[in-house]
Amino acid sequence: MTTVNFSSFTLPHLFGGLAPSAGLAEITTNIERNLAEVAVLDGSAQSFMADAAALKTLLEGGAPLGTILAQQEKGTQSLVFISPDEQEKVRAVVQAAMASWFRARQPLGYAAGRTFSAAEVGGRTAVQNLDMLVSIPSVSDSQTMPNRQVGDVMEAIHSLLTGVGFQVEILRGEGNPLVYAQRIVDPANPTVLIYAHADVQPVKEREWEHDPYKVYYKNGRLYGRGTADNKSGTVSAMAAVEAFDRAGVELPVNVVVIVEGEEEVLSPNLGGHLLQIQERLQSRGLAPGALVVTDGVNVDTHIPTIAVSARGVANFKVRVQTAEGGVHPGLNPQVPSAFQAWSVLENDVLRDEGVDLVVEELRGLVPPIPNELITSWRESGLDNRTVESILRVSGRMLDGVRLAVSGSHLLAEVGRQFSATTMDLRQIVEDGQMPGVIPHAVEGTLQLRIPPGVDADQAAEIFIQLLNHARPLGAHVAAERVGPVVSPWEGPLDHPALQIMGAALAAGYGRPSVLLPIGGSNGFLHPFSRMFPQTPLLMIGLADPTANIHGPNESLDVGDLLAQTHAIIAFLSMMGET
């Protein structure tokens, strides 16, 4: 049999599954026994023991313990054996790298004042750190920047990252500050950037079941403003790096953590901060090999997802008018309401009976769906029936309401097609107009979402020409562009770092990852792409369909929080092998 030296026995081997081995079987049997004891003490034995057994199987390479022992008795030469003097080193790596995974499968509530694992000794837990950050109402407001409480949360993050060995700066300038933290192991090692943001959306407290600025636990989820979007990103990045320290294993890559304070207001000053960051990296001779963005989504709970594209956006102010002024509805029923004309514009001119955008000039611009995406969805079991259920939950749709998208691949319709949505609509009231008249004019905002691979300015020009030439019910339409046009973003599907992230997420969550085109837009995508054009941007996150980010009772799945931490550990380890 072959003896494996610890120098070659790295975390990627663990995460990828090992060949059956007696030495590793002993380690994982002890892990299973210890986990079972913790589970019994806490009253959650059934699910916890099952997951402990699943972990044991993963580490053994998929072979049952009995098979391993039988093979060893027969002297099978294909076995890989870890010598006894290496077992303690392996045990330390396993305990540190998988600690978050263990805790994820025993979702103890913060409200009950318990930690995730009875085996954890000292230090901060991920939930305690998350609760501390959530307790700071760091709402970003573009009208009053810099926002004091965004500054407060940056100071808190500065303290947390300093505590786990980072060199930390708070970069200031126009607007809100940004945290820049680095742990440089060796400039010759690969460098990984990790991005999160710590600003949040405002809350309407009367709509929340509990205090939005205190993490509380319910049914396997942690609730609070900023849990999923996106203070958990900082927490999981920090926990991942800390795991290496607990294990006594040297960090395999240089890690740079960037925490922004203006994402919720479209990152107006990120470009200036990134210029400073680029100068700091260049002064150390560091070239980022990957940028891990933690502000993404999971297509569903427990389904790890990599966002590979995002749609662009353009906004238009539109006025629809059917008469010179308001008239009596009883005496003039022949006059169509401007609201009726707007409805016809949106549902018949722009859409096919209120569903898909049917502007042929626009649909002809959309490139085909990449085969990599179709394969990813098929292998993950994401057929249209499953996706429709997910979309209904994510959209908080009422029973019986039709989806406003259709097609053979609903995920593509959501993320790789045009859509137009009325964002606001109001009646135009003339001076001196009496109440109770037919609305003769309305004005509103139409928002056009632009799929990846499409020239955003060209699409916006086609759309505005269509609006200005439309005559719904014969009404007059006048449209103009409002604000800047944001181009779509698309990452490379063939970059090795994307494949590594897919493997890392599979290790963290215990199932294959999904490639997803997201329908939204993010202000940070283009500044990062311009500043680091050779660096692959890998967007992961914890906003699942029930997270309700930006809304009341925002939450994340507690298991997925620790699964993401585990995935980041795996990614850093695998990148260290490149």
Written overview of the protein:
This protein has helices spanning 11-16, 22-42, 45-59, 65-73, 84-97, 99-104, 126-134, 148-163, 227-247, 270-283, 338-349, 360-363, 371-379, 384-394, 410-415, 456-469, 496-509, 525-531, 558-575, and strands spanning 2-3, 80-81, 167-171, 178-183, 191-197, 216-218, 221-223, 254-260, 288-293, 305-310, 312-321, 419-427, 441-450, 476-486, 489-490, 514-518, 537-539, 555-557. With 578 residues, it is of the alpha/beta class. The longest helix is centred in the N-terminal third of the chain and has 21 residues, at 22-42. It starts with a strand and ends with a helix.
Name a few traits of the molecule:
39% helix, alpha/beta, globular, 6-stranded mixed beta sheet, 4-stranded antiparallel beta sheet, Alpha-Beta Plaits, Aminopeptidase, 3 domains, disordered N terminus, 578 residues, single chain
Layout of strands and helices, then pairs:
Layout (H helix, E strand, L loop, with lengths): L1 E2 L7 H6 L5 H21 L2 H15 L5 H9 L6 E2 L2 H14 L1 H6 L21 H9 L13 H16 L3 E5 L6 E6 L7 E7 L18 E3 L2 E3 L3 H21 L6 E7 L9 H14 L4 E6 L11 E6 L1 E10 L16 H12 L10 H4 L7 H9 L4 H11 L15 H6 L3 E9 L13 E10 L5 H14 L6 E11 L2 E2 L5 H14 L4 E5 L6 H7 L5 E3 L15 E3 H18 L3
Parallel strand pairs: 1-2, 5-8, 5-9, 9-17, 10-16
Antiparallel strand pairs: 3-4, 4-8, 6-7, 7-18, 10-15, 11-13, 11-14, 12-13
